[in-house]
Fold:
Amino acid sequence: MSIGEVLAQLRPDFADVTISKIRFLETEGLVEPQRSPSGYRRFTPDDVARLRYILTVQRDHYLPLRVIKEQLAQLDRGLELVTEGGSTVTPYTSAANPNDEVVLTRSSLLEAAAITEELLAELESFGLVTPRRGGRYDADALLVARTVGELAAYGLQPRHLRAVRSAAEREVDLVEQVVAPMFRQRGADSRGRAEESAADVARLTLRLHAALVDAGIRRLSR
Structure:
């Protein structure tokens, strides 16, 4: 594929991607398209899937290019990034799930979340972040660490956020009460219905939570 054809494939999911962005990623060594005899870039389906992975983790998980490049290099060497599933993750196929592939070392998490070692230790001590097997961290840990780091600018520390964690756990328990019977049902599509219901109930409880918080904040300003 030409770079224009690659752009056409990526644009539906990444509206802000440009030819310059693709060339920049090539310059940074994250993708290496072949060259035609006349010097034009020629991309394979694996190159496109690799670009899709890069753009997804940049957009959804705020990973810096250095961390993404580190992950890709490990995968290129045949190293396993995700240990929970017990198999090597290859992010260049259409079956790849970027959410499962975000696995960070401790130092990479600190850099990606822009927090200190001391703050991460506090997050772990209060149960807000828990490392996976092998001392690795997933996308959830990154999002929590990054968010707490931003809250720290307002003087809020992990010990102040225990109530937030407790509220989240109660909301998870509420979702579980609704969908647990569905997961126990037999049938080819029963699990799919249960997962869809869990996502819907979670969305509605989050909406209710946000509405109540917004209403409370408005009362503070009266």
